[in-house]
Target: Phytocyanin domain-containing protein
Amino acid sequence: MSSSSKVFLILFVCIFSLLILHGTSTEFEVGEKLTKGWEVPLPKHPHVYNEWAQKNRFKVNDTLHFRYKKDSVMVVTNSEYDKCGSAQPLFFSNNGDTTFVLDRPGLFYFISGVTGHCPKGQKMIVKVLDVENSSDDDQQSGNQTAAEDTKKKSDATQALGHWSLPSFMVLFIVGYHIMG
Model:
C-alpha cells in the first residue's frame, strides 16, 4: 500500500468515526400526513401539532421543516408559549418555508406569530432527547439562560448533516481506486 493510500485510509477512518460519533440527522415535516403544513388546526383537532410531536423522537441536529402561507413560526419561552405571544421571540421566520435546527437537548416551544392562531391550537412543544446522556432526557429548557442559547439562523446546517454513511462509502471506494 502506497503512502498516499495510507493517508487516504487514515483520513477516511477519521471522517467515518466523526460521522458515527456525530450521528445522522433527520428532517421532519411538521404535521406530516395530519395537516397541510403549519396552519390553524381544525376545531375538532386543536392539539394536532403536540400529538404529532409526541409521536416522533427528536435528537440534537434534527431539523423541523415548516411550510405555510401568510403565517410565521416563532420559538418562545415556556411562559410565552402559555400566553400565546412574545414581543421578542427567540426565533422568528415568516418566509413560508422555514427550516429550524434542533441544536440542543430539551424543550422547544413553537407558536404561530399571527394573532389568534396560537389560541386555536397552532402551537407545539418539541422534546429533543440527549442521546449522549439519556438520563438527562427530561431536562427542561424553560430557564432563560437555556432559552437564550436557542436563538437560531433559519437555514443553519451542520457540517456533516447532509453526508450519509453510503456517501462516505462511495467516496472511500472511488478514492481508494484513484489512489490505487
Residues 122 and 162 are 30 Å apart (CA to CA).
